[in-house]
Automatic annotation (TrEMBL), chain A:
Pfam families, per database record: ATPgrasp_ST (PF14397)
NCBIfam families named in the record: rimK_rel_E_lig (TIGR02291)
InterPro entries: ATP-grasp, RimK-rel_E_lig, RimK-rel_E_lig_ATP-grasp
Domain ATP-grasp residues, every copy: 43-301
GO molecular function: ATP binding; metal ion binding; ribosomal S6-glutamic acid ligase activity
Name listed for the protein in its UniProt record: Alpha-L-glutamate ligase-like protein
Protein's GO biological process: SOS response
From TrEMBL, chain B:
Residue intervals passing through the bilayer: 6-24, 319-339, 359-380, 387-408, 414-432, 480-500
Residue span(s) of domain Inactive transglutaminase fused to 7 transmembrane helices: 24-185
Domain (7 transmembrane helices usually fused to an inactive transglutaminase): residue spans on this chain: 264-508
Keyword hit for Hydrolase: no
Protein name listed in UniProt: 7TM_transglutaminase domain-containing protein
Keywords attached to this entry: Membrane, Transmembrane, Transmembrane helix
Source organism (scientific name): Malaciobacter mytili LMG 24559
Length: 311, 510
């Protein structure tokens, strides 16, 4: 039932306390947190650094502006509303289509105009932000995700999570939503995590609810067949995120748009530990290898090359 | 790992400071470490009786004891209805003075009582007392006998102590010498006479000696007189002798009421005056003894303690000082075990509410309020309200539920009904709001997980905060908070695995 802590240590598995003290606390400077925690700032910063992100349609900061929200989405079929300072995917509303004045969620459920207004109002009131402080609702163009993932995900956008440690892509996984996760990509809600080989972008192993699986529970597609397209571009994109935010322990969420290729969907200053289970591999050993060479490599290219070569 | 060492050092310093302050209070201020500890307070009452003389004003004065090494007087009280009462110091001796213009006929009674506690660390400055020794006319054969006795004993002795011991032994022995017997029969009819003669004899040799009236601290003594004793100087220190027992090595059981040759009782305008003593032992909690002692000691450390606060504030602090204990439980549960709670310190607030409501009614109330709150909240979400308005509505509903349950349990005759108002309602309203969001986004499982996690941690915090020993220690030794702080800081650098992670990563170990 319980693992021997010494064995976990030997496997190099990163624990929550260790992560908080020796990685987040040590490498993520407090003053850089807003670059990551505030999605609006992340977007603006990404534009300055030429990093591709889903297109911003607009944002709403004050309750009185809510009734104008339609002007941001009038030309869009699908769109996403998120709180600028939400965490853990909380408060993200995805609309895939508009039909008869109703807004359709990926699950097929339809929402009315007032449902959307209420959601925006909740965001502004700070329901999803840390400590309940007032927030901003951000409107994004819906990503048309690449066909490469056809059958691998159920009712949701699959994304690639890469842990970037001191600028080196250290570990990667794909998060595939399932019917159980209600279209969400959070592993603890039942999404499938697939460990991705840093070298090739191919699937290594997969888990759901911490248990190894072989096929997608909804589509029965063999998860071994999963191969992430644009893999090297993705690795470069992640490494660039480190240059942009100066966060030494960073989780970058990448989605692949049919037309635009890999986009940085979101950055995370406190990425979770489930990626280790998906990869069936402890993160500490890789971090140690990076620590040994961190002073040698200056450019993004060198760092990515080291990761590809080593992991 | 420089900061790690710093933290280690810092917490060790904090813990050491706290423990040494505690040790000091326990050892030197006699603070009890456990609630059950009791100490003895000796109550000594002097009962002065006299008869009035017609048409005369009365003036009665009595020598009073002062604190002595090992014995602290914590309270003095005179009860003397209708008498004027003052204190004065004459020749370094404190005296109580009662006065009255016209005294009624019949026996009059005045009381004077003191409370003492023993404290082996207590030292006072010795005070000089007036001692006059009158010479006494005696017949020639007696003087002769006395001189030969003194000569004999002087030769056998080495110093004032051994001389006095031998002298007392001589008079107490079953077969005293002829000389001793003669003196005894003529001049030692009472103990007081015996003491006074002994003093004269010792003084004759040239040793410094003085009169003492003392009381043995033995429980339940009524109507006793002061035991006549004497003190002899040896190498700048006075040694106490019981005239029947000899040198008293350990004087911690003896209260010296009167020193020197002043009269114990002086009475003008009255007749048949007399003073009798009674000694009683009272058992009181050690803390109140330590505290009443403090009034006299004026210890700065205690002077800055919580006991100087008014009672009501003290009670508030009794509760407040428990919060760090609850926080410690939360820290341990989250860092070592990894239990999920909704809101970091919600469990501590809940535990504080449980203290007021009792545990079981509190848990029941929590479940009832949250469940009903969630139901109401799900209805309110249809009304499409702004967040603040919605939470406020939930808040009002929570108050309403509480009032309803209070009235209901009052009707059913349940005692705890009214105490539920201690629930932190704003926290509860927010908790309900967040839980309902979690319900919508992450499902009921997550809500139950976080809700039961919060409840579990708050129950544990409740037990830590209601533990008698712990709460007794935090209130009497608030410095223990430094140790708690040190411990929390130390735990704050724990980078090992949580218990929940051993479960979570179980599948990765094959």
């Amino acid at each position: 039932m319980f693992a021997n802590p010494f064995k976990l240590k030997k496997l190099g598995i990163l624990g929550m306390n260790n992560r908080n003290i020796n990685f987040i606390g040590k490498y993520n400077k407090r003053k850089n947190f807003p670059f990551v925690d505030n999605k609006l700032k992340t977007k603006q910063l990404a534009h300055e650094h030429n990093i591709k992100v889903p297109q911003l349609l607009g944002f709403i900061q004050f309750q009185v502006e809510i009734k104008c929200f339609e002007k941001y989405i009038e030309n869009e079929n699908g769109f996403v509303i998120k709180p600028a300072q939400g965490s853990g995917g909380k408060g993200i509303l995805v609309i895939v289509a508009k039909k008869d004045g109703k807004y359709i969620k990926p699950s097929g459920e339809s929402l009315s105009y007032s449902d959307i207004r209420r959601h925006i109002s909740n965001i502004l009131s700070g329901l999803y932000s840390l400590g309940g402080k007032n927030d901003i609702a951000v409107f994004e163009r819906l990503v048309n995700f690449d066909e490469a993932f056809e059958g691998f995900s159920f009712e949701g956008v699959p994304d690639v999570r890469v842990i970037v440690y001191r600028g080196y892509p250290a570990m990667a996984m794909m998060r595939l939503s399932t019917s159980q996760s209600d279209g969400k990509a959070n592993l603890h809600q039942g999404a499938v995590g697939v460990g991705i080989d840093i070298k090739t972008g191919k699937a290594l192993s997969a888990v759901q609810f911490n248990r190894p699986i072989k096929v997608h529970p909804d589509t029965n597609k063999d998860l071994k067949l999963l191969k992430v397209p644009y893999w090297h571009e993705i690795l470069h994109l992640c490494a660039k995120c480190y240059e942009m935010t100066q966060m030494g322990y960073l989780g970058a969420d990448i989605v692949i748009d049919k037309l635009r290729g890999p986009l940085v969907l979101e950055l995370n200053a406190r990425p979770g530990l489930a990626i280790q289970i998906a990869n069936d591999l402890g993160a500490l050993n890789r971090f140690k290898k990076i620590d040994e060479v961190a002073h040698l490599h200056k450019s993004i290219e060198e760092k990515v090359a080291f990761s590809i070569e080593t992991f | 790992m420089k900061s790690k060492n710093q933290i280690l050092l810092f917490s060790i310093i904090l813990i050491t400071i706290s423990l040494s302050l505690m040790a000091y209070k326990v050892k030197y201020l006699n603070f009890p470490l456990f609630q059950e500890e009791t100490t003895n307070i000796w109550n000594i009452e002097a009962k002065i009786t006299f008869d009035a003389k017609k048409n005369q004003s009365a003036l009665i004065s009595m020598a009073l004891p002062s604190s002595q090494d090992g014995l602290i007087i914590i309270n003095e009280e005179s009860s003397s209805a209708n008498y004027g009462y003052t204190n004065s110091t004459i020749n370094n001796v404190k005296r109580a003075i009662w006065s009255k213009r016209e005294v009624e006929q019949g026996e009059q009674v005045l009381y004077y009582s003191i409370d003492l506690i023993k404290d082996k660390y207590y030292k006072t400055k010795p005070i000089e007392f007036e001692q006059t020794i009158e010479t006494q006319d005696a017949s020639k054969p007696i003087i002769q006998a006395a001189l030969s006795l003194l000569d004999n004993i002087y030769n056998k002795s080495a110093n004032s102590l051994s001389f006095t011991s031998l002298l007392i032994q001589e008079f107490n022995s079953k077969e005293p010498s002829q000389a001793a017997l003669m003196i005894k029969n003529n001049y030692m009819k009472t103990d007081i006479q015996k003491r006074d003669v002994l003093i004269k004899l010792i003084n004759k040799i040239g040793y410094k000696v003085r009169t003492i009236g003392a009381l043995y601290l033995e429980d339940k003594q009524r109507n006793i007189s002061l035991t006549p004793m004497l003190e002899v100087l040896h190498k700048d220190k006075w040694y106490l002798f019981d005239i029947n027992k000899g040198l008293l090595e350990n004087s911690s059981d003896i209260l010296i009421w009167q020193r020197g040759s002043q009269f114990l009782l002086e009475a003008e305008g009255v007749k048949n005056s007399n003073v009798k003593f009674s000694v009683t032992k009272n058992i009181v909690p050690a803390r109140s003894a330590a505290l009443s002692k403090d009034v006299k000691n004026q210890n700065t450390l205690l002077d800055f303690s919580l006991f100087v606060l008014p009672n009501e504030t003290q009670n508030t602090f009794k509760l407040l000082l428990l919060v760090p204990l609850g926080a410690l439980v939360v820290v341990l549960m989250r860092i070592f075990i990894g239990i999920k709670t909704s809101g970091t310190f919600m469990p501590v607030l809940l535990a504080m509410a449980f203290i007021e409501t009792q545990l079981l009614p509190g848990i029941l109330m929590f479940i009832v309020v949250v469940t009903m709150g969630l139901i109401v909240r799900s209805y309110l979400s249809h009304l499409n309200l702004l967040l603040v308005a919605r939470i406020s509505s939930v808040l009002i509903v929570v108050v309403g539920i509480m009032a309803f349950v209070a009235i209901l349990s009052q009707k059913l005759g349940l005692e705890y009904a009214t105490s539920i108002t201690f629930f932190p309602i704003i926290i509860l309203a927010w908790t309900i709001e967040r839980m309902s969001i979690i319900w919508e986004e992450d499902g009921a499982k997550e809500v139950i997980q976080q809700g039961s996690g919060s409840l579990l941690v708050s129950i544990l915090a409740y037990f830590a905060m209601t533990n008698n020993t712990l709460s007794f220690i935090t209130f009497n030794f608030p410095e223990v908070l430094l140790a708690v702080l040190g411990l929390i800081i130390l735990v704050g650098r724990y980078s090992g695995y949580r218990l929940s992670e051993l479960y979570r990563f179980y599948t990765m170990v094959k």
